[in-house]
Write a structure and sequence with these properties.
Elements lengths: L1 H17 L3 H10 L5 H4 L1 H7 L3 E5 L4 E5 L2 E4 L12 E5 L5
Antiparallel strand pairs: 1-2, 1-4, 2-3
């Protein structure tokens, strides 16, 4: 009898979840800010700022290696800050 009640309760929960109105979810999603490319990817920062040779968000550091960027991994529980250039290319002499 317990198994039947548990199965019925589970089925009821699944039916309720499936029938929820998506308008609430869509309204919440519409209020969230759309992040810029720099917020999404630290690699994109280097693609956009070609004169920057090394950049960081306080958790990861990226460095130009030829035409590619090489980035470190993020540490556990690190809270990234806005990405900033740490070293620019020296102008030709």
């Amino acid at each position: 009898m317990k198994k039947v009640l548990t199965a019925a309760a589970l089925l009821l929960c699944l039916l309720l979840a499936a029938s929820q109105d998506s308008s609430t979810r869509d309204a919440v999603a519409a209020e969230l800010p759309i992040p810029s490319v720099e917020d999404i990817s630290i690699q994109a920062y280097g693609d956009k700022n070609k004169s920057c040779q090394e950049w960081t968000d306080g958790c990861r550091t990226c460095e130009r290696s030829g035409t590619d960027a090489v980035c470190s991994n993020i540490g556990i529980a690190c809270q990234p800050k806005p990405i900033a250039c740490a070293r620019r290319a020296e102008p030709p002499k």
